[in-house]
Amino acid sequence: MANHLIQRDALNPLGRFDPFSDMEDMMRDFLLPALRARDVGNGRMRIDIAETEQAYLVQADIPGVNKEDIKVSIDGNRVSISAELKNERVTRDGGGKVVRSEREYGQQYRSFVLQHEVDEAGAQARYENGVLLLDLPKKEGTGGRQLAIQ
User: Fold this and answer.
1) Sign, Cα dihedral of 114, 116, 119, 125
2) Which residues form the SHSP domain (predicted)?
């Protein structure tokens, strides 16, 4: 953020009126924390993809989901991951009265395209500690070929 000096004529009422003077403060104080909170929560599945000569290794953070509620589909070089979120957190005081209840329900979905086709028969998936681990071997013969110019 740059600091700007703005000259205003204190005697001229229109010179003092600047409806956008506090816009930057409003964006910083009101809108940006809400946008950050949206990305930090469970609403977005985060993935890492590593590649070896034989396979792609995918790690997807999907905390708070049962492995039965996760679906992975492979179509050539397109991989799609979907998960049904059913998360409840209830806080009770000593007398059993609910003082806070945070419930999250919904669908998370990610799809991405890899450079090489995936061998569906050899693909493996595991779910450990909120992380989906995919081992996606590359299909043989999908590296393409180079044509000789005559």
Assistant:
1) negative
2) 38-150
Confidence of residue 140 (pLDDT cuts 50, 70, 90): confident
How confident is the model over 54-78, as pLDDT tens digits?
A: 999 999 999 888 889 999 999 999 9
Apex 132 CA angle, 130 and 88, nearest 5: 35
| pTM of full prediction above 0.70 | no
> Does the pLDDT value for residue 84 go beyond 50?
yes
DSSP class of 139 = P
Q: Which amino acid is at 25?
A: D
**CA 150 → CA 3, 83, 146, 147, distances in Å?**
64, 52, 13, 9
Question: What does the DSSP 8-state code read for residue 12?
Answer: -
Tokens of 44: 């977005």
Res 38: pLDDT = 45
Sign of the CA dihedral with 94 first, then 96, 99, and 104 last: positive
Q: Are strands 98-113 and 78-92 parallel, antiparallel or unpaired?
A: antiparallel
pLDDT of 104 reads 67
| Distance in angstroms (rounded) separating the CA atoms of residues 118 and 136 | 6
- Strands laid side by side in the 46-51 sheet: 46-51, 55-61, 131-137, 124-128
